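Hey, can you fold this one?
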Amino acid sequence: MRYDRKGLTALRTTVQLVVQDPDDQLFAASVGQDVSFGPLNLGLSDTEVRARVAQSLAALDISALADRPTHLLSYGQRKRTAIAGAVAMRPRVLILDEPTAGLDPDGQERLLATLDGLRADGTTVVMATHDVDLALRWADDAALLTTTGAHTGPAAGMLARTDLLAGRGCGCRGAWR
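Sure. Predicted structure:
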C-alpha cells in the first residue's frame, strides 16, 4: 500500500472498522445520510450511492429507519447504523470492536445473523470481544492476546486453553470461569 491519497482510498474501501460505541462513529442528521457518507466521499454516482445505502440498510434490517434522526435511535439501532455505514463501503474485511456489547440477547442474535450473511457474501469479519462464549459459538479462528503474547488457532482449541484465558491478562469473560 502506498501512503498517498490513492493508496489510502484503496485501503478504506478494502478494510472498514466499526468502533464499540456507535456514538463515536455516527455524526450525520439521519440514518441514510450517515450511511451514505463513505460512498459519497468515494465520488460514486448518486445512483450507486443510493443503491449501496439501500442494500446496507436492508442487510442490517434498518431500512425503515433511513429518514430517522440518528439521535432518536435506540442503542442497538445506532450500532446497526454504524455497521451499515461500514458495509456500504463494500469492504473485503470488516473489523468490529465488541459488536454485541450493550445489546440484549435478541439484538445480539439478529446482529450475528447479519454478520453470517456478510460472511456468506464473502466479507471477512474480524471481531474483537471479551465474550468467550460468543467467540466459541461464532468464530472460526481466534487470537488470544495475553501478557505472554498473541496466540492463534481454531476457535474451539484456542478458547479451551484455560492456561491462556485465566489469570494471564486476557480479560476474557465466559462460562468457563
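The chain has a mean pLDDT of 89. Let me know if you want another pass with a different chain boundary.
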